[in-house]
Amino acid sequence: KQWYQRRVRGEAEESRMIGDENLLFLFSPDYGEINIMVAEKKFLRSGVASEALTLMMNYASEKLPVVKFSAKITNTNLASMRFFEKNNFVRISESEVFQETTYELDTWDFTQTSLTAVTYPF
Hints:
- The protein has helices spanning 48-63, 78-86, 107-113, and strands at residues 2-7, 15-24, 31-38, 68-74, 90-95, 100-106.
- By secondary structure, the protein is α+β, with helices and mostly antiparallel strands.
- It is globular, with a radius of gyration of 15 Å.
């Protein structure tokens, strides 16, 4: 489990968890399923989810054998669907049984569109 923390403006001495993200390898070590959640409402639509997603995908693309990312989203969660579409994920399927939509992004497509230079503290 990957925990995401961000220093809050005006609270320079405090660092706290505002959400979490996971990268799961359920079927293959080269296919990573992403889950991301911002728990504190004041950070919704602030860019922290995109920042966390980019950091995790950069790390996985560089350090792990991931060739494809996926995200499964409940069909009623339109904000999450827009979030992943905005981050270049492509809708590949819908399941009526599970009431979810699956999005995917190849690491090649991600690395070609990501201009973020990242250094890792670990």
